[in-house]
From TrEMBL:
Keywords: Hydrolase, Nucleotide metabolism
Organism listed in the record: Streptomyces kronopolitis
A Pfam entry, by short name: DCD
Presence of keyword Hydrolase: yes
CDD domains cross-referenced by the UniProt entry: trimeric_dUTPase
Full protein name: Deoxycytidine triphosphate deaminase
Keyword flag Cell membrane: no
Top-level taxon in the UniProt lineage: Bacteria
Gene3D superfamilies the UniProt entry points to: 2.70.40.10
Gene of this entry: dcd
Length: 179
């Protein structure tokens, strides 16, 4: 079951889910609009290596916005901190943003129960596209879970700002266990 807009508001009020800051006008019939935070991150290496940490460059979006270039992966973040110990969150790009040629979070839309923090957004533009901090960029839906809950306690917990991939940590753990 998916939460309706009024139930999202009720759950935010009673603490079953956390959205901070919460703005009533961002509640949709069955989702909540999230806004783009002010920081973007890009990888600086010619080749990104999944087995090793990758160098990045971080920068702030100015009041005049920032032009996303095709062929570049940008890591952004939600302005809002979102999480729940009860519901399963899913984040998707808003259709109006998709109609501008911006892919948002197309490979990893599901959040874990127990994660609380700003969501890292994977942004990829088809054409040069100017984006602005604070623009409504995505929407999060919340689903009711069934069964025992094992709360998330992973490497991205309490994320603030965009987070580069920590996949290399998983590989290092697998290598250590295999040794």
């Amino acid at each position: 079951m998916i939460l309706t807009g009024p139930e999202i508001t009720t759950a935010a009020d009673d603490g079953r889910l956390r959205i901070h800051p919460f703005e009533a006008d961002q509640v949709n019939p069955n989702s909540y609009n999230v806004r783009l935070g002010s920081t973007l991150l890009t990888y600086t290496a010619e080749v990104i290596d999944a087995h090793h940490p990758n160098p990045t460059r971080s920068f702030e979006i100015s009041d005049d916005g920032y032009v996303l270039e095709p062929g570049e992966l940008y890591l952004g973040h939600t302005l809002e901190e979102v999480g729940s110990d009860v519901f399963v969150p899913l984040l998707f790009g808003r259709s109006s943003v998709g109609r501008l040629g911006l892919f948002v979070e197309i490979t990893a839309p599901i959040g874990d129960i127990g994660f609380h923090g700003q969501w890292t957004l994977m942004l990829s533009a088809i054409r040069p596209l100017r984006v602005y901090a604070g623009m409504k960029i995505g929407q999060i839906m919340f689903f009711v879970s069934t069964g025992d809950i094992d709360l998330y306690a992973g490497k991205y917990q309490a994320a603030a700002g965009p987070q580069a991939s920590g996949y290399w940590r998983d590989i290092a753990t697998v290598r250590a266990v295999a040794s």
